[in-house]
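Table S2 (continued). Query chain:
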Amino acid sequence: MAGMKLTKSPLAPENTPKLPDIAGVKFAVGCNGFYGDRDDVFVAYFDEEASAAGVFTRSSTCSADVDWCREALRLSEGKARALVVNAGNSNAFTGAAGIAKNEATIAAVSKLGNVERENVFIAATGVIGEPLEPKFIADKVHEIWPSLGEASLNDAGVAFMTTDTFPKASAGEAAIDGEAINIAGVAKGSGMIMPNMATMLAYVFTDANLSPQVCQSLLSRYTNETFNCITVDGDTSTSDTVMLFATGKSGSLIDDVNDPRLEEFAAELHKVMLDLSVQIVRDGEGASKLIAITVSGAKTDNSAKIIATSIANSPLVKTALAASDANWGRIVMAVGKTDQPVNKDKLSISFGDVEVASGGMRAANYSEDAASEICQSSEISIKVDVGVGEGIAQVWTCDLTHGYVDINGAYRT
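Corresponding output:
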């Protein structure tokens, strides 16, 4: 992977936002050499116990790191003191060697930070099935620990990139009891992206004073509306993790998710998570177009999401859009194969504001030129109504180009 050449996505944001410092957490970054001289590991250390929440992959072949984080959340009752994340090796499907690597890393952090092992969270992303020496990450943690506080969250956002062509970062600000609260998050993800929990690694930090239960409730709710609504290639990673950490350095304690004081903060958190999610799709491997798919008129919201995801994951739809071909017949196919309730005689499809199908057939005012013009854009909106109910959902995806094959064909070379 060190020799892989990646061209920055044409859909990349013009600028990566400078994230605010979050009181109560310090960062350090280092290089293990997986990507030449680029940083590929970071440590986050909390001055005091921070509230923690996590949502993880549903993959039955999940990594040893995911297994540990689930256990650590249970043992610690949602309290964190440290986080270690590395890129280049996912520590998935590595058996006893993967557990040994984790134990060594956790032991190192526990000793260096004088913290309980269940308060240490870990994650890894990269190649599957290649074991590391037990102390490989632990030795790097020892090396960079004295530099805690010298790196920023932006630096951490670079350090866990794999095939990403730009770092994903987002921030927001809200008030609780009149006191300013900061929210800042980073994410990585470009391929092996499919909504079945979270489909990447993402970490959001805030100085808000929230209980672990409030953190978990908010994170679970908004993951389903953001990270669980994106797809690049339909593949669910073994390492998917989204975590929220609240240091408690600002504002009064909120231990009830229905507390009205939480409303502004919750809206900002949702905004940050959605921004990070869409940035991942923008950086889909080989992507040249960002595609928003909205399905309405479904029996339920979940049914709408299933249909929207079917469209978003169809290689035929995605390749047509890569070529700016408004081949709406492929959308009809993707809707029909889901086994979800659909009234084909009421089915309608639009590209942007151009209606291409209505009443179960080609629209009376159909214009191939108008539809094709919409599909030449770098951002495309597709709307489908299936005519059976009030269910609605939105999913974000990207097109499928030769670039995707080139990147994944060379992933390990």
